[in-house]
Amino acid sequence: MDPDAVAKAFVEHYYSTFDANRAGLANLYQDNSMLTFEGQKIQGAQNIVAKLNSLPFQQCKHSITTVDCQPSGAGGMLVFVSGNLQLAGEQHALKFSQMFHLMPTPQGSFFVMNDIFRLNYA
């Protein structure tokens, strides 16, 4: 398993799903998963997806600038992403950073154990 290839595939899947159908992200999280979104901590797949669905915009497009990854203990991976978030109707894109801690599942894939998102204000 090439960690860089796994990270790249995960990032492509995550953001294309987020942009098209946020509810579709539910299967990437589990009950013990945690999201910190702009400092607010949310635990559990249902609560995380509810938070993402409650964001005050319907359409957006992520464009990824960088993806860095490192192996972590127990077969997991840290994935750090930076990029731009273009909201529908807005002239300027927002810069963001997001960190995922992916952990392996018994089925051989990964789930998001930890997810930290921040907008980067200039």
Could you describe the 3D structure shown?
This protein is of the alpha+beta class. The chain is about 20% helix and about 50% strand. It is built from two helices and six strands; from the N terminus they run H-E-E-H-E-E-E-E. It has a six-stranded mixed β-sheet with strand order 2-1-6-5-4-3, covered by helices on one side. Strand 4 (about 75-85) and strand 5 form a beta hairpin. The N and C termini lie far apart (about 35 Å).
What are the key terms here?
alpha+beta
Summarize the structure.
With 122 residues, this protein is an alpha+beta fold.
Give the SSE order as H and E letters: HEEHEEEE
The total count of strands amounts to 6
Q: Give the C-alpha Rg.
A: 14 Å
Termini separation (Å)?
Answer: 37 Å
Provide mean pLDDT, rounded. 95
Major beta sheet summary: 6 strands, mixed
- Helix proportion: 10-25%
The total of helices stands at: 2
Sheet with most strands: strand arrangement: 2-1-6-5-4-3
The percentage of residues in β strands lies in over 45%
Assembly form of the protein: single chain
Large-scale geometry: globular
SSE-based structural type: alpha+beta
Runs in which pLDDT lies below 50 for 5 or more consecutive residues are: none
Blueprint (SSEs and pairs):
Blueprint: H1 3-20, E1 29-37, E2 40-43, H2 45-53, E3 60-71, E4 77-87, E5 94-104, E6 110-120
Parallel strand pairs: 1-6
Antiparallel strand pairs: 1-2, 3-4, 4-5, 5-6
